[in-house]
Design a protein that fits this description.
The chain has 102 residues and is mostly helical. The chain is built from three helices and no strands. The chain has a domain of 57 residues.
Length: 102
């Protein structure tokens, strides 16, 4: 080696890419297509998959999404749940049973 030094040029910062609202909606709609993979769509558009998931939440999962509605249930409206066994049934034992010698 001749003592030559190599300097790497590292950019001080990278500018963020601005993506229009229309393109975001298009990407979200594409990710909502039947059989589409969010990860594959994100890679295709050079976008992080986590960012695409955030856009999906932001845009209501695309153009054909049904909006969510808040629902409040009063305790007197909740039906009783039948577990299928009597409430006084004993719990199964946690003790190990000895195995018969074979």
């Amino acid at each position: 080696m001749s003592g030559e030094q190599i300097e790497a040029k590292i950019p001080a910062f990278t500018r963020r890419r601005r993506i229009s609202q229309a393109l975001k909606r298009q990407i979200v709609d594409e990710s909502n297509a039947p059989g589409a993979s969010v990860s594959a769509v994100a890679r295709k558009h050079d976008v992080n998959a986590n960012q695409l998931f955030k856009w999906r939440l932001q845009y209501g999962r695309g153009a054909g999404a049904v909006p969510l509605v808040s629902v409040h249930v009063r305790p007197d409206q909740v039906p009783a749940i039948d577990a299928g066994f009597p409430s006084d049934a004993p719990f199964p034992s946690t003790k190990k049973t000895p195995r018969p010698d074979a």
